[in-house]
Amino acid sequence: MKEYKVEEHIKDFSSEAPSHEEVKNLAALAAADRERLLRAGIDEEQKAAGTFVHADHSTVYCNSNLKGVEIAPISYALFKHDGLRDYYWKIMDRERDAFTELAAKRKEGGYFIRSEKGAKVNYPVQACMYLETNALAQDVHNVVIAEEGSELNIISGCASGPNVRSGLHVGVSEMYVKRGATLSFTMVHDWAEEMSVRPRTTVVVEEGGCYISNYICLKPAKDLQMYPTVYLNGENSVATFNTVLMAGPGSKMDTGSRVYLRGRGSRAEIVSRSVSTGGTVYARGHLIGEAAGVRAHLECNGLLLSDSGMIHAVPELEARHKDLEMSHEAAVGKINQEETEYLMARGLSEAKAQSLIVKGFLSLDILGLPDALRGDIEKIIEESTAAGAM
C-alpha cells in the first residue's frame, strides 16, 4: 500500500550532497562529528568487532577487527558476492511503498555485515548512518546475515550533524538469521528536530534462531514511521522486540513491530514503552500465530506527561492455529503520585523523583551501550521529564 501524500515528504529534500573522503581512523573526523557519533552509539575508544560509518551518500570509515566478521559497503558486497542474489531485495518488496521505491531507484549506499558459520562475536559491530548536509534525502540499503550457529551483536546508530536541522532518512534493511544463530540488533536514533525518518526492515529467522531488537529514540525526529516485520519460519525460533520512545512537543512517532510465528514452537515478545512530553505516539504491535506450540506476548505501556501529547496503543493478536497461546496488555497513564511522594520523602526533589521513575519505566538496561551514551540518555530523560512537568 502506498503511503498517503508521500510526495510531500520527498519533494522538500535534495538528493545532492558533496562526497566525503574515507578516513583511516575516526579520530580524523571533526570533534563535533565524533561527539554526534558517540551519542548514536559509535565509541572510538570501545573495543568493537568492527565499525562502519556512512555520511550522506559516502562511506567514510569501514573496518573489521575480528576474524569471523565481514563488514563492507553494500556496493562492494554486491560486487564481491555476485550481487548477493540470495539476499538483496529478496525479503523486502521494492514496491512496498514510495520510500522503498526511492531506495531501490537511487542505490546510494548502506552496509553489509555477516558473521561466519559458528563465529561467536564477543564484541559489538558499530554502524552509523550520518546526515551531514542539511535538507538532504539519504537512502540506504543494508543486508545483515548471521550464518548458522553464529552470534552477532550490532549497535546501529543514526544521527545528524551539528548544522543539520531537517532531512529525510530512508533505511531499507534485510536481515537473515540462519539455523541456531543469534542476532542482537540495537538501534539508537539521535536526529535533528525537523527530520523525517522511514526505516523499512524485514527479518527471516530459521530453526532455533534468535533475533533480538532494541530500539531507542529519545531525541525525537519530527516525523518517525517504522514497522519492522519478522518471519519466524523455523521450529523453536525466537523474536524479541524492546522499544523505548520519548516524544517531545511537536513530534509524531508511529512505531510498531509485526511477527509471523510460522515455525512449530516459535516464540515472540514485543514490549513497547513510550513517554510523551507533548508529542504524538502510535505504539503498534501485531502477532500472527500460524503453527502449533506458538507462544507470544505483546505489551504496550505509555506515560503521558503533558496535556498537549497523545499516546495511542494498538495491540493486535491474530490466531490461525488452534494449538497456540498469545496474549497482550496495554496501559497508558501518568506518573504515580504515591511513587513520587515516596521518593520525595527520602530527600529527592519532585523533578528528580519523576526522572527516576521515568528511567525505571523505560528500562534502559540494554547490554552493549557505551557508558558515555548511557550517561547522555539519562541526561535527556532528566531534561525531558522536567520540561514535560512544567
TrEMBL record:
Coiled coil: none annotated. It comes from the Bacteria. Signal peptide: none annotated. InterPro entries: Fe-S_cluster_assembly_SufBD (IPR055346), SUF_FeS_clus_asmbl_SufBD_core (IPR000825), SUF_FeS_clus_asmbl_SufBD_sf (IPR037284). GO terms for biological process: iron-sulfur cluster assembly. Pfam families: SUFBD_core. Residues 136-361 form the SUF system FeS cluster assembly SufBD core domain. Belongs to the iron-sulfur cluster assembly SufBD family. PANTHER family: FES CLUSTER ASSEMBLY PROTEIN SUF, UPF0051 PROTEIN ABCI8, CHLOROPLASTIC-RELATED. This is SUF system FeS cluster assembly SufBD core domain-containing protein.
